[in-house]
Every structure is written in C-alpha cells, then in structure tokens.
Design goal:
mainly alpha; 82% helix
C-alpha cells in the first residue's frame, strides 16, 4: 500500500506539471500567435505528453518496472484517448458555455486526469508478471 500512496502522490505532481505545461503552451499560442484555442490545444498536449511520460515512467510507476518502449506506446494510446476526450469536451464547452477558454481548459484537464491514472496504473505501465 505504501507504493500505491507514493505512486498517487507522484501521479499528482507529474500530472500537475504536465497540465501546467499544457496550459502554458495553449495560452502562449493563443495570445502569442493568435492560434485558435482548439488548435493550440493539440500543440499543448504534444508538449505535455513528453513531460508526462517521462515523469510517470521514472517516478510514478517505476516500481512496476514496465519496459520502456511498450510503456511509451501504451501511454501514448492512453494519452491520445484522454486527449480525444479532452478535445471533444473542450469543443463542446467552448461552444455551449460562456466560460473563458482558459477556465474551460482547466476544467477539462482535471476531469480527464482520473481516467488517465486508472489506465496508466493498470495497463500502460504494467510490468510483466516475471518482472514484478
């Protein structure tokens, strides 16, 4: 149980860092290059993916001792699925609510985090039984 608690704490730390990077890239691209928020969101996700995978592989789920390339591929799939949910929810909320794009993005990023934790822990970073 101790490793689960440490893993959860690292997940939150790494996730907050990746979300901050995602958020910062989107805001910088919207304000600096006048990109549409949904387009900037794609770039934000790609940059944040690198931060997220690195942190989760080396810190959050290192005790699971999953192979690097398999974990990278699986986590990319988890992240892409999360991003699709993120982008769809972001688009709907931008269109149907009067919320500011930055507040809307923050809400969506937090909402997607729970599914990412579950899929990452129980599939993406799962080591083979012989390696645990």
């Amino acid at each position: 149980m101790k490793s689960l608690g440490a893993s959860a704490i690292w997940f939150i730390v790494v996730g907050c860092l990746a979300a901050a990077v995602h958020f910062g890239v989107v805001v910088a691209l919207v304000h600096g290059l006048d990109l549409a928020p949904l387009v900037a969101n794609v770039a934000g996700w790609l940059v944040a993916f690198v931060v997220s995978f690195s942190g989760h592989f080396h810190l959050t789920f290192r005790a699971l001792r999953a192979p690097l390339l398999r974990s990278a591929w699986r986590f990319f799939m988890v992240s892409a699925l999360g991003f699709l949910a993120n982008e769809a929810a972001y688009a709907v909320l931008l269109r149907w609510t009067g919320l500011n794009y930055a507040l809307t993005l923050a809400i969506v990023l937090i909402a997607v985090a729970v599914s990412t934790w579950l899929l990452s822990r129980h599939w993406a970073f799962l080591g083979s039984p012989a390696r645990r």
